[in-house]
Amino acid sequence: MINVYLDDYRACPEGFRLAKNAEECKQLLEREDVNILSLDYDLGWGQPTGLEVARYIVETGHYPNTIYFHTSSPAGRAQMMNLLLQHAPSHIVIHNGPMLV
């Protein structure tokens, strides 16, 4: 199992694999068993956002065990969280904020 940190700007925490864009993150979710996923919303001007990753998770069922949101976008966090909370199986843990380290 791996942990994935989706962000185009911030440094990746120890113990995580960095996905710098939505496509890299979706590929990791498809190919690996993901324990923890930490999502950013804004991934660069004109680029797909973390919401696209959340939609991918819902559409494919490739849920990680635990999801955090480290984005600085309150609106983006709300969109991703609401989508995932509406569709995630009950055993998936979804936190309304970043990991506390």
From TrEMBL:
A Pfam family annotated for this UniProt entry: cREC_REC
InterPro entries referenced in this protein's UniProt entry, alphabetically: cREC_REC (IPR046909)
Residue intervals of the Cyclic-phosphate processing Receiver domain: 2-84
Top-rank lineage group of the source organism: Bacteria
Protein name as it appears in the record: Cyclic-phosphate processing Receiver domain-containing protein
Native species: Paenibacillus nasutitermitis
